[in-house]
Specification:
Blueprint: E1 2-12, H1 16-27, E2 32-35, H2 84-97, E3 104-105, E4 110-115, E5 120-124, E6 129-137, E7 144-145, E8 152-154, E9 157-160, E10 174-178, H3 182-194, E11 197-201, E12 208-209, E13 212-213, E14 216-217, H4 218-227, H5 232-246, E15 268-269, H6 273-278, E16 283-285, E17 288-293, E18 295-298, E19 303-305, E20 308-311, E21 315-316, E22 329-330, E23 333-334, E24 348-350, E25 355-356, H7 361-379, H8 383-394, E26 414-415, H9 417-431
Parallel strand pairs: 1-2, 1-6, 2-3, 6-24, 8-17, 9-20, 10-11, 10-20, 11-16, 12-15, 25-26
Antiparallel strand pairs: 4-5, 5-6, 7-21, 13-14, 17-18, 18-19, 22-23
Helix pairs in contact: 1-7, 7-8, 7-9
């Protein structure tokens, strides 16, 4: 069955990114359908749903002021780092406030999107194929687990961090957490509290920042320095001093010294890891060399008997519903201007395809404002839209806010939030 929706755009997903796009399209009177495979909004923050990676004790890593949408503050009574229940309530209120739910089609799974010369065919799991004017991919990118390829085989229980929900799987077991990102450090602390014995495997040393400095969230301290236009070397020095004052040198508790500079990797923010190591509740280990039954051997020659391995090793960039060539795939990622715009097509966009060094939803709100302004300007044949079309064709890999990060899968969509936000706001103004 084929149905025509050629007067409107298709937004894939009603998580934090899809909601921002829907809100901005609604405000600019851009016709759209928002398709969501679950029976509720929230995406990753809808705890317990198949699409959700959050676990029972999850809190935001970024502070609420740098996480919230641009025009919808989180409640004043919320803590600086809200938990997943508070986040979900906030998203529900956001959708209610802007009247979004009536524009979302729930329990609607997209199997395939394919371009034609003038529009897009969107095929649903029901077998229906719809024709849309354009597509905004906003389904998120933290859903396809990445596992390391260690030699040997493990006889115990293996879980990816996205599968972990409650600490009962840790209780009474010897647990190894693999990975030193924010999830890895949080789950290492969780294992230290609940497991019989807890170990934390780290392939390389990472700078770890405390969540607070003198009672203020650390990301807001960094935001102040960025607003003051403090040069990067001085910001690095300030951050190093804060780490030494609050946490101390990493090697004093057995953590490896970082082999790279601050802000060359995605920031790890954790105030409890050092404490659990210092109290003997968590033992740091190097990278895994081999799995042999319940024995895990490490590259330093040591080994441990392990019952549960919890892999906090990130996610692969996956879009199984569209051919990679349609996303201009290069070097392991969609090669898009500002991680939003296809260089050639003017009817395909991505929203939320970023990993910022701070909160995300405000940035995605600006992305959505920019997409909406672009579509309105394009409809009017605006010179500003023509300039952006030229820019996205010729400058796809050159824009402010990309930052200088280590070349690794973890950083393929990493952005430096302050410069990125400035660029988005500048273009929004040009297209207004």
């Amino acid at each position: 069955m084929t149905s025509l929706h050629a007067d409107r755009y298709c937004i894939l997903g009603a998580g934090t990114s899809g909601l921002a796009v829907a809100k901005n399209f609604l405000q600019r009177s851009i016709p759209f359908d928002c398709l969501e495979r679950e029976d509720s909004i929230g995406g990753n923050w809808c705890y317990g749903k198949p699409a959700s990676s959050v676990y029972a004790s999850t809190h935001t890593i970024s502070s609420k002021q740098l996480t919230e949408y641009t025009d919808f503050p989180m409640p004043e009574e919320y803590p600086e780092f809200p938990d997943h229940k508070q986040v979900y309530a906030y998203l529900q209120e956001y959708a209610r406030h802007f009247g979004l739910s009536k524009h979302i089609q729930f329990n609607t799974t997209v199997e395939r999107i394919e371009p034609t010369a003038t529009n897009w065919h969107v095929t649903l799991a029901s077998g229906e194929t719809r024709t849309y004017r354009g597509v905004v991919i906003a389904n998120g990118h933290n859903w396809d687990p990445r596992f390391p390829d260690f030699p040997g085989a493990f006889s115990g229980t293996s879980l990816h961090s996205s599968e972990y929900k409650t600490p009962d799987v840790l209780t009474g077991n010897r647990v190894l957490v693999v990975g030193c990102g924010n999830s890895g450090c949080d789950l290492a602390v969780e294992a230290a509290i609940h497991a019989a014995s807890a170990f934390h495997s780290i392939r390389r040393g990472y700078p770890i920042l405390p969540k607070f400095f003198k009672g203020k969230p650390i990301d807001q301290c960094g935001e102040t320095l960025l607003r003051w236009r403090i040069p990067l070397p001085l910001r690095r020095l300030a951050a190093k001093l804060v780490v030494r004052w609050v946490l101390g040198p990493p090697e004093l508790v057995g953590l490896p010294r970082p082999d790279h500079k601050l802000f060359e990797t995605h920031p790890v923010i954790n105030s409890r890891l050092h404490d659990q190591i210092a109290h003997g509740n968590l033992r740091e280990k190097p990278n895994v060399a081999e799995l042999a039954g319940h024995t895990v051997r490490f590259v330093d020659g040591t080994s441990e008997q392990i019952d549960v391995i919890l892999y906090a090793t990130g996610f692969k960039l996956s879009f199984p519903f569209v051919d990679r060539k349609e996303l201009n795939w290069r070097d392991g990622r969609p090669n898009l201007y500002l991680n939003i715009f296809h260089p050639e097509r003017n009817d395909l966009f991505c929203a939320g395809l970023i990993q910022p060094d701070s909160g995300q939803w405000g940035l995605v709100d600006y992305q959505a404002q920019l997409i909406a302004n672009y579509l309105v300007s394009q409809e009017k044949n605006s010179p500003a839209a023509s300039r952006l079309n030229k820019r996205k064709r010729t400058s796809v890999n050159s824009w402010q806010g990309r930052g200088t990060y280590l070349d690794s899968p973890r950083h393929r969509v990493e952005v430096e939030h302050f410069g990125y936000r400035q660029e988005l706001r500048k273009l929004i103004g040009e297209l207004a």
